[in-house]
Amino acid sequence: MVVRRVLVVEDDRGVREALVALLELEGYAVEAVTDGSAALPIIDAGPPDLVVSDVSMPGMDGFALLARVRADHPTLPVLLLSAAFRGPLADGVDFIPKPFDVDHLLAAVERLLVACPPSP
Question: 35-49 pLDDT, tens per residue?
């Protein structure tokens, strides 16, 4: 069985820790950072199977991170979380409003991972 890697990018410590715990309980290998700038070297070193990112963060926000991911890793799926943003997104990108429903979040994670084969 291949363990799928998820990178969580979230500046709020409580939300970050909750996401990590939830995803690890589901069997994912999870790494977490506090902003988009910290995520880039991890993604560039060996992209995870999915990026779960907050939209509103100090430094590099979720939209700037998404733009960089799309430029450098166009097939890497991204799940954005936000209490404020509402709007359509591109293929391979999903959006979950905060506060998020756990079942809805896990369904979105699974949907994005099923659509993208595991990284080698």
Answer: 999 999 999 999 999
